[in-house]
Structure formats: structure tokens, C-alpha cells
Amino acid sequence: MTTVITYGTFDLLHWGHIRLLERAAAFGDQLIVGLSTDEFNAVKHKEAYHSYEHRKYILEAIRYVDKVIPETDWDQKIRDVQKYHADVFVMGDDWAGKFDFLKPYCKVIYLPRTKGISTTKIKTDLSEEEQEAIVKNENED
Ligand code: C2G
């Protein structure tokens, strides 16, 4: 049994996230996702739209995901790799090199990040569309 582990916020789930999970799962028989808690997101200077419970509910519905565990701090990865006997650690390459300290414990793989989509882009695009609608309505009034 080859176990893969990855971590993230996975807010406003999009196809870039799914591609990461799909590719990560392909490295083994089971995929564990360390999901950032709302409190840890604050540490990462991120504020998720969906709560931890809802992001967990969504991830658990994905065929590539076998288990979701809370990510509460930067220092839990070695403990998690040992606790869950993870053989492979996978992250998008926006994190390339940042988790090489795991190499003595498991295989470390950074996958190319999916271009053209991000949670930030979704929020920005929707905000701009809303602004354009407001301006259009004002011009029509
Ligand atoms: N990702 C991707 N392509 C995108 C967007 C995200 O491959 N277009 C990947 C990221 O590289 C990451 C995973 O999807 O591996 C989750 O992304 P985020 O939810 O943004 O995770 P992040 O905030 O980077 O948290 O301890 C690690 C951190 O918790 C990672």
C-alpha cells in the first residue's frame, strides 16, 4: 500500500485543485489531504470563503481523496508522514523546495501548477464583474 499525502486550503474548489489531487493520487493507492484549518489559514494570511467543515465535506466527496486530516501548523508534516506511513509527499511547484526537509522521510514531488486558474483569480474576476454590473446599472438609471 503506497500512501500519498498533500496539504492545502482548497477553497472555492476549482479544476486546478482537482488536477493536483488527481495527479497526486496517481502516485499511490491512497491519498491523504492535510486541509488547512480556518485558524491555520490566518497564519498563512489567507481567509477561505468556505469553512473548514465545508471544505472538508467537499474534499471527502472527491474520488481521488481517501482521507482528510486537519492542517493546523507548519510543523506537523514530519509527524504526519510518520503517523500515516506516507511514502510520497506531493505539492504544486509554487512550493518547490520548501518541503525538501521531508526527503529523509518520504519521496518529495512538486507538480507543475495548473496555469490560468486560482482561488484568487475567481474572487478577482467575480468582483470585477460585479463592479461592471454596478457601473452599467448606474449608467442606465
Ligand atoms: N494548485 C495547483 N494549481 C492551481 C492552484 C493550486 O496545482 N492553479 C495546487 C497548489 O500548488 C497546492 C494545492 O493545489 O499544492 C492546494 O492549493 P492551495 O489551496 O492554494 O494551498 P496553499 O494555500 O498553497 O497551502 O502546508 C502547505 C500549505 O497548506 C499549502
TrEMBL record:
Keywords: Nucleotidyltransferase, Transferase. Residues 5-124 form the Cytidyltransferase-like domain. One of its GO terms (cellular component) is cytoplasm. This is Glycerol-3-phosphate cytidylyltransferase. Its EC number is 2.7.7.39. It holds the Pfam family CTP_transf_like. The gene is tagD. It is an enzyme of class 2 (transferase). The keyword Transferase applies. GO terms for molecular function: glycerol-3-phosphate cytidylyltransferase activity; metal ion binding. It comes from Schleiferilactobacillus harbinensis. It comes from the Bacteria. InterPro entries: Archaeal_FAD_synthase, Cyt_trans-like, G3P_cytidylTrfase, Rossmann-like_a/b/a_fold. GO terms for biological process: teichoic acid biosynthetic process.
